[in-house]
Design goal:
This protein is mainly α. It contains three helices and no strands. Helix 2 runs antiparallel to helix 3. The longest helix has 25 residues. Keywords: Membrane, Transmembrane, Transmembrane helix.
Length: 66
């Protein structure tokens, strides 16, 4: 029951867009911090997190085949 409620909530494009934006902003902040502090591990982590945030967007929703 909980699983169905969470999957319905997660599949809404507005919710996925907000979460994707938050993840991308966190990645950008990490990347900028990494560039200005010369800590390239943070830069690398920021790039990876931005990519993950882009993959979370509402365009990635697939309809289930049942």
């Amino acid at each position: 029951m909980i699983r169905g409620m969470v999957s319905r909530w997660w599949s809404q494009p507005g919710v996925r867009m907000r979460i994707a934006r938050v993840v991308v902003v966190i990645g950008v902040v990490l990347g900028v911090f990494g560039v200005f502090s010369a800590r390239y591990g943070f830069l690398f982590a920021g790039i990876i997190i931005v990519g993950l945030g882009a993959g979370l967007g509402p365009a990635r929703i697939r309809k289930r085949r049942e």
